[in-house]
Amino acid sequence: MRIAIFGAGGVGGYFGARLALAGHDVVFIARGKHLEAMKAFGLRIESATGELIVDPVQATDDPQQVRGADVVMFCVKLWDVESAAAQLPAMLKPGGGCVIPFQNGVEAPAVVARHVGGERTLGGVAYIAATIRAPGVVAHTGTMAQLRVGTLKPDQDARARAFVDACKGASIDCELSPDITTTIWKKFIFLAPMSGCTSVARQPIGIVRSDPDLRATFVAAVTETVTLARALNVPLESDIVDAQLKFLDRLPADMRSSMMNDLLYGNRLEAPWLSGAVARMSREKGLSAPVNATLYAALKPYIDGGATGARKA
Predict the structure, then answer these.
(1) pLDDT (tens digit per residue) in 1-53
(2) What's the mean pLDDT in 102-129?
(3) Angle of helix 180-201 relative to helix 290-299, nearest 10 degrees?
(4) Phi-psi label, residue 253: left if phi above 0, alpha if psi -120 to 50, beta otherwise
(5) Region class of 306: left (phi > 0), else alpha (psi between -120 and 50), else beta
(6) pLDDT > 90: percent of the chain
(7) Shortest CA distance to 30 belongs to which of 48, 43, 46?
(8) Whether residue 173 is found in the same domain as residue 202
């Protein structure tokens, strides 16, 4: 299978490496020093599950050089979704191929569908804590590394199952979700509050869950996000908030959100599409989400990058 990895960071780098080592025709779209290091020394994955090295690597910074992809794993940061999605149509196999967005938010599939068509857009969720530790090196924290894929339109089963089978053949924990929209929202219900709380506190998950005030903030942010999801008719279990807390308590104490890492490194933040999105979509539905709005407000000075919090002109 020809697979394009559009965005070779934590998600794209880790899962793309496994697919490449399993013999699939994988090409990574990356940029800057990360791309230069991958071309010169290969792509290395540091993980408790075992080190992976892909060398040589097919990699480019020009999406238009990629043609005939059966699947594009769309893993760019949320601020790049709109501009990157415009590059997708030319990358897909003529008459076939599909794109699977693996962003943290809930809005990327609709953006992708506007560019390639709903029939060629699947839904995807990645569960992994991974980040670029150094150019050409992706660090995977803990052992969790899962993908969930599902259809958003009728007649997409064959495409979804083909990708799932390719992942399983690469020793990736990948399953077909019977309701990928709900699966995407369930991750968002956890991820948006967790990213907001860890980033505002500048502390990993262990501190957030053990401090009573931070834990209460997380619970309130989750509750607001659940209320929004239900207002949008997303089917959720009655104990969804308790389930998110149980999941929080099982994670490695030193785990950081990717947004917290970006904040500490002075990179741009995905806050407008996480806590900010909960606040925005809640307003649009006539709901109040004061905790998510406050988390977003606290991070807003940093969203364009810069460790001092100064907005770039």
Answers:
(1) 999 999 999 999 999 999 999 999 999 999 999 999 999 999 999 999 899 99
(2) 96
(3) 60
(4) alpha
(5) left
(6) 91
(7) 43
(8) no
Q: How many CB atoms lie within 10 A of CB 53?
A: 12
Give the type of residue at 227.
Answer: T
Write down how long the chain is.
Answer: 313
Partners of 174 in the β-ladder: 147
Q: 98 and 227 share a domain?
A: no
Last residue of a domain, one of 129, 157, 177: 177
Q: How far apart are the first and last CA of the chain?
A: 43
Q: Determine the pLDDT at residue 307.
A: 57
Q: SS3 string of 137-170? A: EEEEEEEEEEEEEECCCCCCHHHHHHHHHHHHHC
Q: Are residues 172 and 189 in the same domain?
A: no
Domain boundary among 155, 177, 199: 177
Residues 6+ apart with CB under 8 A from 102: 11, 12, 73, 74, 75, 124, 125, 126, 147
Which CATH number is 58's domain given?
3.40.50.720
Phi first, then psi: what are they for 238, rounded to 5°?
A: -65, -25
